[in-house]
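Entry: N-acetylglucosamine kinase
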Amino acid sequence: MICGIDIGGTKIEIAAFDSSYNQYIQRRVSTPTSDYSEFLSLIKTLVDEIDKTFSYKSHVGIGFPGIIDVNGRHLSANIPCITGKTLTADLKKLLDRNVTSENDCVCFALAETIDGAGRGFQRVFSAILGTGAAGALFVDGNIAMGKNRISGEYGHIPLPAFLQRKYSLPHQSCGCGLNDCMEQYVAGPGLERLYQHMSPDNSSIDTYNVIAQYRQGDPIAIQVFQCYLELLGYTFSSIVMHHDPDIIVLGGGMSQVTEIVKSLPQAMQPFLFTNVNPPIVVSALFEKSAGSRGAAMLTQIPLTRSQ
């Protein structure tokens, strides 16, 4: 059996797959973000449960938010406890087996490119839009990745001055160490920040209620959502101008908002060259399970860089 583990900023999902990627077990738990020892202990407990269930020492593939530097140390804006730690090496020692790890967006993109919504397309950009915002580009089934392994980190494009001035947006520091990253405005928590900023009394509501009020015709929520779509359109137009994908596959919690998926191509259009059409935008085929599925696939499918 293969354990695919999708580590997110708010939840960890573990799933057990056979060699044909048929899923047998799936479990989700909250992510410990501040205590590294607790984080490692939880991963070990989850893997031990899978091993015990199948009486087999499973292969383990892990997707995590962030990057690994040249010294094997992790940087994650959304899980502070793993930043600066050699997570992959520590898990190999703790679990007493080989552990294959990669950025969670690469895992998501691998699953959606090979078997999912991007299957059959030459240039597939898969983007997670949830607690954070990042993605990965596959070309002809191969990952497009440079030596720093930061390709696809669209959430850390800086907020453009013209949009900051248009909406008088407050400056935001990002967990990556930079300031005014687009992730702070277009990821799920960003929609909440926009609502608080644009509400006359600076009231705060969660993402789900912003969407609910928008659907009910609330004028503040409509204004917030229009601002959000413009910010998102600018962000994804940058992806198109840099990578020219045939299709964009959206995953993460915000991809479940149908208005975002349907409106994104039109929202990109003002920021593209005249007569350049935006790519197809679709929701992920595997939805919430793409990350764990891709993590499992990592153990069997070597990632080859696109030339």
